[in-house]
Amino acid sequence: MAMLDKSQKIGADEILAHGRDVIAMEAEGLAALATSLDGAFAEAVHAFLNVEGRVVISGLGKSGHVGKKIAATLASTGTPASFVHSAEAAHGDMGMISSRDALMLLSNSGETAELMPVIEHAHRIGIPVIGISSGSDSTLIKAASIPLVLPAAQEACPIRMAPTTSTTMMLALGDALAMATMRLRGFSREDFQKLHPGGSLGLKLMKVRQFMHSRDRLPLIPADMPMAEAVMVMTSKSFGLAGVIDADGQLIGVVSDGDLRRHLHELNSALAGEVMNSHPRMIQADMLAEDALRFLNEQKITALFVVEDETADRTPVGIVHVHDFIRLGLA
User: Fold this and answer.
1) CATH 3.10.580.10 applies to domain 208-328
2) Which of 34, 133, 165, 240 could staple 110 via S-S, CB 3.0–4.6 A?
3) What would the pLDDT profile of 214-241 be if each residue is shown by its tens digit?
């Protein structure tokens, strides 16, 4: 890397100072927003929880971009939501807002002209209007049944005009509404996985039963099997261990490669039940892949048997190996 001369170093320092000023100013806005939340916030969450249709969000310009993100966050966390462009609404898209919906409108000034027909439509069909604006005396806030007023804060812009602090506060308020609704709805990690089946999130939230090896792939042996035969089973299945089961098919122990090394001198005469570890570690079939991988790493082992319920039913239904997680792109 080329060395910076003195003038370049000063330039970089100034740039860093500008960047830090912006972030600090927006952080001040977020702190003010957190302390400003009141009963209207709770009303908005209740409106989200009780909506029969969708939460329809609308805005224009930067507020519209923020609205799209809030709609996506709500939809992905259990609250059906969609975005309607304010200008397009007056040209036919108003039909996307029904009497079963709740409407949330975003406008920093609260005077965005394109929102007025949308407000009138909402009043006409009798649905709640949640308004988010910095204009405490604005048309939007006065027309909203649930007004959410952003605290006074300077835009983090040299000329104090570009939407920066205001849009950051809008976005954070949308996240707060979505997460509070998600928590009260009891939306679980399993629910999240159903809505995120693709990508890395979907993989992490897969259940073990979705990718475990099962049936004839399981290296299972009885406790009275001679170790000479047990080693052949272990070798043929290639997992580096074998599960020892009792007459009822319950897992009572495992024989690992480590156990073979520890009992090397007696393998010709020993039975599986004499060599096995009688306190086998196992996981349940409904455990999430992310949690299963964490357990493997914590235990410093490479493979585990899978059961339906390790306290009530320890019948092995599958086996997972760390290579399975690597193959899925999780490790």
Assistant:
1) yes
2) 133
3) 999 999 999 999 999 999 999 999 999 9
